[in-house]
User: Fold this.
Amino acid sequence: MFKKRMAVLVAFVVVLASVLAGCGNSKSSGSSATKKAAFKAGMVTDTGGVDDKSFNQSAWEGLTSFAKDNGLKKGSGVKYLQSTQASDYSPNLNTMVHQNYDIVYGIGFLMQSDIQKIAQQNPKAHLGIIDAVAVDKNNKPLKNVASITFKEQQGSFLVGVVAGLTTKTNKVGFIGGVNSALLKKFENGFKAGVKTVNPKAEIYAQYAGAFDAPDKGRAIAQTMYTKGADIIYASAGNTGNGVFTEAKNRAKNGKKVWVIGVDKDQHDQGMPENVTLTSMVKRVDQAIYDVTKQTKAGKFPGGKVLEFGLKENGVGIAPTTDNVSKKALSTVNDYKKKIIDGSLTVPTTDKEYKEYLANLK
Amino acid sequence: MSRILKKINWMTLLIPVVSVILGLLCGAVIMLIIGYNPVLAYQSIVESIFLQPYYGGETIRAMIPLMLAGIAVAFAFRTGLFNIGVEGQLLVGWFASVACAICFDHLPKVILLPMSITAGGAAGALWGFIPGLLKARFKVHEVISTIMMNYIALYTTAYLIKNFLYTEGERTPTIPAAASLASTFLADLTQGSRLHWGFVVAIIAVFAMWFGLWKTTKGYELRAVGFSPDASKYAGMNVSRNIMLSLTFSGIFAGLGGAMEGLGTYQYMTINSAFTGIGFNGIAVALLGLNTPLGVVLSGALFAGLQTGGMTMQSEAGVPVELIQIIIALIIFFVGSGYVIKWAFGRLSRKGHK
Assistant:
């Protein structure tokens, strides 16, 4: 009896294994044939994942639209690797470098030291980093890394203007991901925008301490809305999705509150309750598209620090403006011109913001 | 008598092995259902780890903290204590080793490296001692206190870095070369992986656990307390002191695991916004390894392999990394339901004797 049952078990395993093996061979032979020659671009996400509805997703959209325009295939021509923990960054980046990708992007400043190390280990590899400047020991930009940065303060200023003109309670909030120099650019630009058009407005600013914690984002939003804020600028990646959840809940209960989205046009994110006032778009997709295009043309911008601002169409307010009043929009356009022609400089650090406020009065 | 003993050992060994196989099989079925190719996926894991030095090196690197965390859990478990606080002990160990390395960066390597490693172990010991003391003196359940200590560790280290050791990129500065476990020799050997000398520390720790628990009088006492606190007390052993001792030692192992990350893998400490997960994986490693030193090494290797392989599975077979987490969870699930496996095999073999 025992033998019989064991025999059945073994037979089952063998059948399963052979079925699995059958489908294994067909695929693996195909992928090895198309290895060389074709242009390949890859990116490594941070722990937020590729569907964070913000930063990583935007980067991936940049690559996919590049793939579409150039006849590359998803998965072979353009590809992403997700990281589940910080120690995954380095192996993921290395994997793509070893597979001879023509350019590999690290999405986010958290990958800065890993990119720097890998760039020095593989001088022939072409790498890109978003939101950070990759440097060597002597603080000089690395020759084989394109450092892509944005003037987030400019876009944040514009949504700040919208918030300042739209708020009814004269109280607005800012929720940041991780308190850092980068996020300070968002915060100070936003605060400057609000105060410029609405000096009486009160601004709450708080950091969740993480880009991947929607629960924390929601808890902070709850506090801010309860304190009377009617608009919150959620600049926190996936954490910001918690802010949307809270706003939608309140909207369902008949309270009119707004969220200002970040990185992408988050209008759809606010539906069906329609809570997205506008979004500060950071065109990571545009930047990635541009740099990939240059790389393909043989003009990889290695060693350069690229800055994408309002002028370069790298930041700005979202194309969807259904919820913004005409008056606010025209004011935004006025300030946009001033920023582009250089007559207005938006503060980035706390110190600059203080000086900016002092000059306003 | 000896035959029965043999049979029991065989059965206990069988459960983890069967669990792993079942976990992988279930994972394969899930992949088939979603439409991925399981053979290609598993093949890419095995090929990358055994044939490509880079991934081999990365696997051993990932093994180091997992083994130390596993030993920390297993050590406490042998004394009848469930140390959920490995994660926190690891974080303070990580921080202490990095802080020590940065503060005394003028010292030569012979002094600074051992000192930084010791600092990591000492910080972990302190983090283990506190719940031990609470348990021994006030009967505070160690599961609750160690979980709470995890949060204290997470936010305290974040605060300390932010205020005292902060540099651009949300982290501490890089440690001086004199405190580094990294070696260009090992990196060159493995195509530039982050493999470092920490594996020596991990091996010593495995040996220390085996020797300490099974070859010393104190170890016998610790295990006796684990089997039956009342009987040990009756036999004249100091149960409270043994509890404190056990959690302190457990903390040392965990703290060393953190030091390995700080001095080896990363060379700095980031401001963690969430737990690293190494400590919690350590529980699974210990469980799968049946709380034995050798078992921890083997299951540590398996987990490290799955983690590293999970990444190649993603790049080669296109399978999402989340699936590896599911497979790991399934393996733990089957280990946890070891009773069912035992029962099933018992039925099979009993029928066979008829």
